[in-house]
TrEMBL record:
<dbReference type="InterPro" id="IPR000001">
    <property type="entry name" value="Kringle"/>
</dbReference>
<dbReference type="InterPro" id="IPR000859">
    <property type="entry name" value="CUB_dom"/>
</dbReference>
<keyword id="KW-0325">Glycoprotein</keyword>
<dbReference type="GO" id="GO:0016055">
    <property type="term" value="P:Wnt signaling pathway"/>
</dbReference>
<dbReference type="GO" id="GO:0005886">
    <property type="term" value="C:plasma membrane"/>
</dbReference>
<dbReference type="Pfam" id="PF00051">
    <property type="entry name" value="Kringle"/>
</dbReference>
<feature type="compositionally biased region" description="Polar residues">
    <location>
        <begin position="338"/>
        <end position="372"/>
    </location>
</feature>
<dbReference type="InterPro" id="IPR002889">
    <property type="entry name" value="WSC_carb-bd"/>
</dbReference>
<dbReference type="InterPro" id="IPR013806">
    <property type="entry name" value="Kringle-like"/>
</dbReference>
<feature type="compositionally biased region" description="Polar residues">
    <location>
        <begin position="391"/>
        <end position="401"/>
    </location>
</feature>
<keyword id="KW-1015">Disulfide bond</keyword>
<feature type="domain" description="CUB">
    <location>
        <begin position="209"/>
        <end position="316"/>
    </location>
</feature>
<protein>
    <recommendedName>
        <fullName>Kringle-containing protein marking the eye and the nose</fullName>
    </recommendedName>
</protein>
<keyword id="KW-0732">Signal</keyword>
<keyword id="KW-0879">Wnt signaling pathway</keyword>
<dbReference type="InterPro" id="IPR018056">
    <property type="entry name" value="Kringle_CS"/>
</dbReference>
<dbReference type="Pfam" id="PF00431">
    <property type="entry name" value="CUB"/>
</dbReference>
Length: 401
């Protein structure tokens, strides 16, 4: 299953190489509110040209009203999602039918974990194992339903229908443009829940509270993502990549408002906390940890929930950052002793890893050293301004646009 997904992802996101990982998408949120790419027409094939945000003063979203780059607006005409709609969009020159904005079909903007949008003519349905409808459907309510029944895939259709299954016949059910799946969920109009005769399919790992990762690269989402994380969540994920000497962690989206909720990265064998993030201390750069085993920990208290985070990690072997650029893991050579001395400047972490200790993993007692209570008092870092997503959605009015 994982290899099927990997093949799918790598063929889907094959256009450009990113600084980290093989996920070359420009979007890590389900609705592309984090899209900061440069597509300036509503579709690459025969789309309408987008208007410049610094010239759309007849409409609610423009650079006079949002002069500080809120929602990614600026003196450009790139597709954006400043109001938390289901997809990035832009204003277009007025049409005769009264249309003055359009969703953008952006191939490079697809949250990892979405397998795609597929046609469903019902015979057979793309995901056939379990089926439910709900007037309060959200992406995560469907994913949770399927995950709790141990299915690997969850599909949403027409805003209120949820399907579960383990396999999807990509050939039988053609891939459709994401626009066809941009019907708002009945339980949250900002999330896409498929369309008429179209099902949007997610990996049920999205938004799970914990998990075990061994791939050299993957994306991990906060619990309940893309919904807000629930109160009282305590989750941990193990990231253990045999043969790795360095694992890099890039938080591509981070929206945690309060100081009690937090994310930690722990060295796997010692359970030593190497990085801690919360509302006042969001991640500002990539975290390098020289180890082959890291624990990601999340805690939320009983108030003030937020959307959480998405994080991509990439493991490397080799002893310099130069070789790290090319050093994808080959799993048969674990004789090399890791002697990585990653530059300890600016918040990065230097740790020795010992590949001969790999077998400890199966016996390790997951001991989270910093209990939430303890952490309240020893909060590192200082107030340096909000995380890049903190101002998002909160001060922008909803419709009309
Ligand atoms: C982290 O990931 C984002 C999204 O892929 C990317 O734009 C950014 O450049 C990465 N950060 C670094 C330092 O590579
Ligand atoms: C869109 O961007 C491309 C490349 O940057 C540019 O050549 C083109 O003129 C732009 N189109 C519009 C409508 O601004
Ligand atoms: C808007 O921005 C574009 C690109 O920076 C610029 O060419 C144009 O003159 C600007 N329009 C106004 C009204 O300032
Ligand atoms: C991860 O592995 C641990 C230890 O083997 C196991 O107890 C736990 O259930 C696993 N978690 C998941 C989500 O598979
Ligand atoms: C983290 O590792 C990357 C790749 O090895 C390197 O480019 C970057 O400079 C490192 N960052 C720090 C702060 O050492
Ligand atoms: C690695 O672990 C082995 C066995 O636990 C130990 O003998 C060796 O000194 C360790 N090497 C390093 C670099 O820590
Ligand atoms: C690690 O575990 C594997 C299988 O679990 C075993 O074959 C191997 O001998 C172990 N290696 C060490 C160094 O204990
Ligand atoms: Ca909280």
């Amino acid at each position: 299953m994982d290899s099927v997904l990997l093949v799918f992802f790598s063929s889907f996101f094959s256009s450009t190489a990113s600084a980290i990982g093989h996920f070359t998408t420009e979007c890590y949120t389900v609705n592309g509110e984090d899209y900061r790419g440069r597509q300036n027409q509503t579709s690459l094939h025969g789309g309408k040209p987008c208007l410049f945000w610094n010239e759309t003063f007849q409409h609610p979203y423009n650079t006079l009203k949002y002069p500080n780059g809120e929602g990614g607006l600026g003196a450009h005409n790139f597709c954006r999602n400043p109001d938390g709609d289901v997809q990035p969009w832009c204003y277009i020159a007025d049409q005769e039918d009264g249309t003055y904005w359009k969703f953008c079909e952006i191939p490079s903007c697809q949250m990892p974990g979405i397998l795609g949008c597929f046609k469903d003519n019902g015979d057979p349905p793309p995901l056939s194992k379990s089926y439910q409808t709900s007037q309060k459907l959200t992406v995560q309510s469907c994913i949770s339903l399927c995950r709790n029944q141990r299915y690997k895939l969850a599909g949403m259709e027409a805003g209120y229908a949820c399907f579960c299954g383990n396999e999807l016949d990509y050939h039988l059910h053609g891939n459709a443009p994401s626009l066809e799946c941009s019907h708002g969920c009945f339980g949250d109009q900002q999330q896409p829940c498929g369309g008429d005769g179209h099902v949007i399919v997610f990996d049920t790992k999205v938004g799970a509270c914990g998990g075990n990762y061994t791939a050299e690269s993957a994306v991990i989402y906060s619990p309940d993502f893309p919904d807000k994380y629930a109160p009282g969540r305590v989750c941990y994920w193990t990231i253990q990549v045999p043969g790795a000497s360095v694992i890099l962690f890039n938080f591509t989206f981070f929206n945690i408002m309060d100081q009690a909720d937090m994310v930690e990265l722990l060295e796997g064998y010692t359970s030593q906390v190497v990085a801690r993030f919360d509302g006042r201390n969001p991640p500002r750069e990539i975290v390098n940890i020289s180890a082959d085993f890291v624990i990601l920990y999340f805690y939320s208290d009983r108030t003030n929930e937020a959307q959480g985070f998405s994080m991509i990690y990439q493991a490397y072997r080799g002893s310099s950052s130069r070789s790290a650029e090319h050093g994808f893991i080959s799993d048969d050579d674990d004789s090399e002793e890791a002697t990585s001395t990653v530059d300890p400047r600016s918040g990065s972490v230097t740790e020795r890893s010992n590949t001969s200790k790999n077998n400890k993993s199966s016996q390790i007692l997951y001991l989270i050293t910093s209990s939430p209570k303890k952490s309240d008092k020893e909060m590192p870092g200082q107030w340096l301004g909000r995380g890049r997503t903190a101002a998002h959605n909160t001060n922008l009015p909803p419709f009309p646009r």
